[in-house]
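Lab notebook page, bench 4
Experiment: in silico fold of construct C2
Operator: M.H.
Input chain length: 191 residues
Purpose: comparison with the prior construct
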Amino acid sequence: MKSIAVVYFSGYGHTVRQAQAVVKGLEQQVNTRVQLLAISEGGALTESEWECLDVADAIVFGAPTYMGTVPWQFKKFADDSSKRWFASAWKNKLGAGFTNSASMNGDKATTISWLMTFAMQHRMLWAGAASAPSNSKSADRNDLNYLGSYSGLMAQSPSDANPDEGPLPGDLETAKAFGLRIAQLTQGLSI
């Protein structure tokens, strides 16, 4: 049985919906135990949540994009992981990441790059998205990977959307496909 933890911060409720969709994809893979961990408004996790990350075979990081990067709550979580960094506790675990912002671009790539760098600092193995983007004239906003991200999972939610209105269905389906990919890669990991 492989264990995968999804740890995220959600400021307005959109990123939690993205995290839940990733979990649905993860749960499609047999022999996979999934833990969904929310970073508090103060940027903290409980000790049992830290222990869950420590024993996980893979960790998926999620944060909205605020001002071109992760919000301070996620940064505090990252800074608090320094004890794990010193102990190499997450070395060779599979890592992946996702983000959401109000605009189509919103500098989400910067957030994914930040999450990737964070995972690399912990000497994790990074897994990106595998869905080819929908980029033909017949493309529809609800196609898989409409936003065209390869290094991580991206979604868009209008700034005035209630949490149940964003991300859009295509972005949530992309999140499920991303989750399934991460679970499949974790099953094959034997480091």
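Observations: The longest helix spans residues 169-188. The two ends are 15 Å apart (CA to CA).
Next step: discuss at group meeting.
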